[in-house]
Amino acid sequence: MILHLKITTSFDRLPGRHLSPQDLLPDGYRPGTGLLVAHQGERSDIPWVATLCGAGWLAGMHWGHWAGEWVVGGAEAKVAAYACIFGALGCFFRQQAWLAWPLLGLASAMHIVTGVWVIGCCAVVSFVLSDPGPRRMRRWLVENAGPFVIGLGLACIGAIPALAMDWGSPSETVGKAAEIQVYGRLGHHLAPSLFAELRWQSFGILLAIGCLVHGFAIREPFQRWPWGVRWLFANAWLALGIACLGAMIDFGVGAVDRTLAAKILKYYWFRWNDVAWPLGVAAVVAAMAYGFLGWKTDRRSVRPVQQWSAATWLGGLVALLIGSRFLDNSRAWIPFGDKARFLSKWDDEETQRQHYRDWLAVCGWISENTEPGELWLTPRNQQSFKWHTHRSELASTKDMPQNSRAIFEWAARRD
Known about the structure:
mainly alpha, two-stranded parallel sheet, 63% helix, 1% strand
């Protein structure tokens, strides 16, 4: 995450010193183009603001996500895509659209479903935040059209293979496969009607916090907000609107025609909201800590205790997040995937340990005494057979294919 935050600050400015708003821009940039810059020459006593802002965002995602999205904590193509997305946001903060759009295109080439939503949101936000006045559209096109086309071209690297998977497949097959995805295997990501109650509660709390924070900050005229905060704020609300529209499709269209709803919802309508909403909240809180938003006073009159209270709050989130993850991981005696899917939660720990030892022993015997090309029928909910044995299996709940015809075969094998 700190690597991503290099879009707004330099590493050689982080350790052992306080950051001023001016420090959040590279040398030579005018005030007002960075994440928290609003007035030249003003300094703040808040240390490590970018790091604390990032930690607040991670905490919001970890505890408040709605659809199970994550950015830090694993290795998938979307992780590299998000690195490009955050790099693009940093370029937008510095008004470098010529580099931002190709970075978003590169993100889409790596993971089309992740990148395409961000391209759409940033296109809207970029135009809305552009200077109003006559020939607004023409000026926006002059600044953005070329790089935007380059970004779309790069995005096609990821889009064309994804679309080609179902070329020639009957519409009925595509619809039924989408239904298996949305209302079966991936319902916890794609269909709010299937989201766990805890996820509704957690995101509801984060949503309420965000509305309170944004409501307090909006007392300051929006045009006076720091440029980067405006970007993140607008992206957060646009992503939330897309997620709400997706929920309406699920509960509305899905109640009448589940297949049609699934064909629409399979494109992850809630993914960017899980990232953008906590990021927008964390950025606004950081801006308020600097005194740029919400105080209805001159920034220099904001008392240090008010600034430090925000820093302490964010720092507490850092400690709680890192501490909880450290305790969970240090106490873990089994990989999370095996514990969550393979072992019975009704068994005591000693029984679970014995089952896991037996599972490793079976996998070890298969690895040493069977031919690599053999196909195995494995327990329905396990997901580590391939890791331990390097053998094929008839079907795995975790490894669902992406093209419609293969999804039908996968579902038949599991049944």
